[in-house]
User: What shape does this take?
Amino acid sequence: MTGGALFVAVFLACAVEAVEAVTIVLAAGTARHWRSAGLGVGAALLTLAAIVAALGPALTAVPLNGLRLVVGGLLLVFGLQWLRKAVLRASGHKALHDEDAIFRTQLASAATATVQSRGIVKDWYAFILSFKGVLLEGLEVAFIALTFGSNQHNVPLAAAAALVAVALVASAGFAIRAPLARVPENTLKFVVGVMLTGFGIFWAGEGAGAQWPGADTALLVIIPVIALLALGLTALLHRTSPPLEVIP
Assistant: This one.
């Protein structure tokens, strides 16, 4: 796997998670209190930094084959889950993911909550909403960057890709003070689901002792095959699909 492929894979996966986190923070700040929402983001980032600092050295201590087997299995869990939802959405069997609708729902919920002040935090609800959103999505970003980087012996490049993705999405979101509804998130999740599933199969196989023909170039076959299977399932399910909906 080349450095460019590693960067693109991590960037796309992390961008999807960043869109969801930014939507939550924007709702907390717009409907409630921007400073409290910002403090929640800062607290979540500090928590994530501590988790990454603890996990990073631990991953490097695991034997490479064992690491690939475990990470490959976890990527398969993530990838297949994303791919299943993407296929169901694309075929019309599951509501489409709409950041505008999610933003409006979060905004409405935040607007009706009571205001509570705790210490330097003037609005505890805004703080907690931002903290949970950034922490949960950030954990997935950290997992993706650490696992991809560790397997390819290039954690700095994977971390850089994750930081660039988060920075670009956050900058765009806060520049327009609105959810990134124009980002083709459903398509991105389909692509990322295919990629994570492909890498999961590849690394789990290597960890179990399999020798892939052509080594890393086998990914050029594995990933397109998974994409074709997913597209085939989408087309098959689309024939019996109900009317498309959007997540309210």
In short: The longest helix spans residues 3-31.
